[in-house]
């Protein structure tokens, strides 16, 4: 999720999010509530004592946060656990015809790995564009603006892994 996406989803300014992230400001309970709702987690989970890890933890479909870019015609299902966000993340990306996931630069050294499950997509990164079909994998720099676009006439689905630098 980009800073822009979170800002829009939570109704919190990008400058406030940046200050919170850099530990320059503390969010009010109202801001924390809006952020947790936008991220699909409960506010009380921030204050609950940590649980001992289960030997096998199972998440059902309703436990997986989903972000939708209606105008951009994409859906991003957050498969990775929240505690790994900002380090290692993985998503299921669904793009409708004409859909695109356009991202600002992530922190230095960040790379993305995208495997197309069905359909075809175009990756734009570092001034280069590559077209991928089902079963192709692209690995590319994500510490500068980049985009994933549906290049076909039908729905495209891909697995997106982000490894932060």
Describe the structure.
It is built from three helices and ten strands, in the order αααββββββββββ. The chain is α+β, with helices and mostly antiparallel strands. It folds into two domains: 3-46, no CATH class; 61-163, Sandwich (Jelly Rolls), CATH 2.60.120. The mean pLDDT is 88.
Low-pLDDT stretches are none
What is the number of beta strands?
A: 10
CATH-derived architecture of the largest domain: Sandwich
Q: Total helix count? A: 3
Oligomer: single chain
Q: In which order are the strands of the major sheet placed?
A: 1-2-3-10-5-8
The N- to C-terminal Cα distance equals: 16 Å
- The overall pLDDT, averaged over residues, is 88
Q: Rg, please?
A: 17 Å
CATH class of the largest domain: Mainly Beta
Count of spatially separate domains:
2
Task: Please name the fourth-level CATH homologous superfamily of the largest domain.
Answer: Jelly Rolls
Major sheet: 6 strands, antiparallel
Would you tell me which CATH topology of the largest domain applies? Answer: Jelly Rolls
Name the helix and strand elements from N-terminus to C-terminus, one letter apiece.
HHHEEEEEEEEEE
Q: Assign the structural class, choosing from mainly alpha, mainly beta, alpha/beta, alpha+beta, or little secondary structure.
A: alpha+beta
Helix fraction bin: 10-25%
The shape, in one word, is globular
Strand content: 35-45%
